[in-house]
Amino acid sequence: MSDTALNTKSGTQAVIPVILSGGSGSRLWPVSRGSFPKQFWPLLSDKTLLQETALRGEQPGLGCPVVVCNAEHRFLIAEQLREVGITNARIVLEPTGRNSAPAIAAAALLIAEENPDAIMWVMAADAAIKDQSALQTALALAVDAARNDYIVTFGMQPRKPETGYGYIERGAELEEVSGAYQVAKFLEKPDSERAAELIRDERYLWNSGMFVARAHTLLSEIEAFEPRVYSSVKNAVTERTSDMDFERLSVEHFTQSPDISIDYAVAERTKRAAVVPGDFGWSDIGSWDALWELTPKDADGNATSGDVFLDGAKNCYVRSDGIVATVTGVEDLIVVVTKDAVMVSHRDRAQDVKKMVARLVAAGRPEALSHNRVYRPWGFYESLIQGDRFQVKRISVHSGQKLSLQKHFHRAEHWVVVAGTALVTRDDEQIMVRENESVYLPLGAIHRLENPGRIPLTLIEVQSGPYLGEDDIVRIEDVYARA
């Protein structure tokens, strides 16, 4: 795609990448969890899926990206974008998940405030694309169709009878754009027999979930088909507030929006739907089996990551983000090891991991949704040991960052600095604590931890008391505007 392919002579139809970063990716459990889902992990390279997605939008002719995300993930997203040099993103915070239609409506309304003719390129934050050149060619066609007021999706050439994707039936070629087609029909995810039938017919394509359309075109269709979505989100955008570098949608109005996908809300009902076929190695990485397909393999068809030893294994995916994992004499298995969970599945049952996560949630297991390492805007903490009336944690604080000014009703804390320097507030005192030094915080003391240095601060925290839950925190002051 040339530099001019995404511009018009008038210059009014800028192309804006819109990245949707929602969902928990539970089929990639135990790596992907609600607190740290798959888009924040480097699953295929040294960059995370979010970073790879954002970098696709760093092309001549494209405007500043808009990212719509869960408010709890805002600092993760900002930090990961900064790591790859993207500092101009507009990050929009959803107070609660309402599926893709409200998220896209919010982005469209914000973009339309400045330029209703701007063309949105909507994509999920957690997909993989191998052939960037083929993607750019398809995008240029989609943009041309969008300029003619079509709502365009990308249809992927099926490689196998996949039951995890929806399908698109391709109709007649558009008169206005050669290589783009009308959408004859959207099909739900099929069973295996129906999927086998579909891939034998060249009219059927996988639905990638990416869309290209003018902001005002999308908004007019959302208003026509889902007026409650339109009105609720419009009010949420109008009443939004600024929160540091983020735009926070109104809780009152956004939560009134129906929970509905853009497919159900618009794509399956509009007469403006078009599709651009593509074959650029797209995958939504919706299961461990899909990740096995995308990962380089050894001579026996095994894909591995981390501290892994194999003997007589074939066609397996084995990943360890924690202790050493050994696999002997098995075939077609998925084995994933983290610091607090192990998942083993047959590759043919990879889609069923989501069902197991649902069972864990029903059983009240914290591992279903949260990792042992918990990320915060100032750094992270992880539990090392937990016993009766005591817990030991490792805490890491980024340079120049600080925790909230807080107190606890049920626990006392002892901090031991093992790397860096800590500035500790304890009631009316300010104490500099250096490596191999410690400070005691009695129950009820008002305290804060800061890292005034240029290197990360690492300390060991020993908690003691009758209740050690994270909800025993009374925040008195917080630079990150948390409750």
Describe the SSE topology.
Elements: E1 15-21, H1 49-56, E2 66-70, H2 74-83, E3 90-94, H3 100-114, E4 119-124, H4 132-147, E5 151-156, E6 167-173, E7 181-187, H5 192-198, E8 204-214, H6 215-225, H7 227-238, E9 241-243, E10 246-248, H8 251-254, H9 262-267, E11 273-278, H10 288-294, E12 303-311, E13 317-328, E14 333-337, E15 342-346, H11 353-362, E16 373-376, E17 379-387, E18 390-397, E19 405-407, E20 412-419, E21 422-426, E22 429-433, E23 438-441, E24 447-450, E25 457-464, E26 474-477
Parallel strand pairs: 1-2, 1-4, 2-3, 3-10, 5-11, 12-13, 13-14
Antiparallel strand pairs: 4-8, 5-8, 6-7, 6-8, 7-11, 9-10, 14-15, 16-17, 17-18, 18-25, 19-26, 20-23, 20-25, 21-22, 21-24
Helix pairs in contact: 3-6, 3-7, 6-7
CATH superfamily of the largest domain: Spore Coat Polysaccharide Biosynthesis Protein SpsA, Chain A
The counted number of beta strands is 26
What number of domains?
3
Instruction: State the end-to-end CA separation.
Output: 47 Å
